[in-house]
Amino acid sequence: MIVALGSLYREAAGIIRSGDYSVVEAPEDFIAYRPKSLDPPADHEAKRIPAVVLSGSGTQRASRATQWAIEQFSPEAFISFGFCGATRDHEQSGDIVIAARVVDLPGTPFEWSMVDTTESLGPDRTLRLAARTAVEVAGLDYHHGTVVTVSRVARTSGMKRWLGETMNAVAVDTETHAVAAVASTAGIPWISVLSVLDAWDFDLPTIIDRAGSGPRQRGVTAYLKHLSRSPLNLSSLLQLGRSSKRATASLTIFMAAFMEAHSALTIEDQSIVTV
Question: What's the pLDDT score for residue 180?
């Protein structure tokens, strides 16, 4: 079984709606879903879906959720998915980012000048091939390169631009490296595929930073309170709402195509071994 591990419910909403899932009791306030049919479909055309685990925001939550998913599902592979920030000017909301490697950049932006790439991790080759096949078959715009994981959301255009230039990164998020590190330690193949939420020249409102919080969506009340203090953020929030729909749609399309591509590659590899 492949486990798709994300952070927020809105990232996975389309994937969950399009699959046949049952809810799994999970620790803390994690959210987990298991495919109702655990046996591989006999029909090659039958729909294949991953288990889904949502950790909430931040590296610590992602690490704990990944470890729990290993114990709960004994996965054959992980796909770390979710939203990311763009670090290049040609990246648009809804574009897919496939990680060629992931780098951890802990601490505050004041500490980022001391860059250490020794903790760089690379994904599984077969999973990366399945991801590349999926975006090409689905006709999704995509980018391939380094993803940087930071401890807090890179809110400003200056932060995102610096990460792109200094780290040669194509995207920034707050969970990917943590998932990759736990999976790598356990010897489980992994891939990271993200969907761009915010462009590199877009400054995010402070309410978007949810470091340490759970995966469930905030209610309208939270946004109304934020707007009462920062009314000028209204246009930014409306724009983010539109971007979120595009990013979610891309992840939904990608996941279906990825599962089919991975299944086809796995069958092909088995055939080669048999021969």
Answer: 98
- How far is residue 50's CA from residue 21's CA, in Å, rounded to a whole number? 9
The string of DSSP letters for 113-150 reads TS---TT-B---HHHHHHHHHHHHHHT--EEEEEEEEE
Q: Which of 25, 127, 19 is nearest to 72 (CA)?
A: 25
pLDDT number for residue 39:
52
| CA–CA dist 22, 197 (Å, integer) | 28
Find, among 204, 250, 243, the residue nearest to 226 by Cα: 204
In sequence order, what are the residues at sequence separation of 6 or more whose Cβ sits closer than 8 angstroms to the Cβ of residue 200?
A: 85, 86, 87, 88, 89, 91, 157, 160, 161, 164
Are 83 and 8 contacting, i.e. CB atoms less than 8 angstroms apart? Answer: yes
User: Which pLDDT value is given to residue 260?
Assistant: 93
Q: What is the C-alpha separation between 247 and 9, in angstroms, rounded?
A: 13
Query: Mean pLDDT by 10-residue block, N- to C-terminus, for the chain (275 residues)?
Result: 96 94 94 80 62 96 97 97 96 97 84 64 96 97 96 91 92 97 98 97 88 83 85 88 96 96 76 45
What pTM does this model have?
Answer: 0.90
**Residue whose C-alpha is closest to residue 82's, from 64, 57, 103:** 57
CATH of domain 2-274: 3.40.50.1580
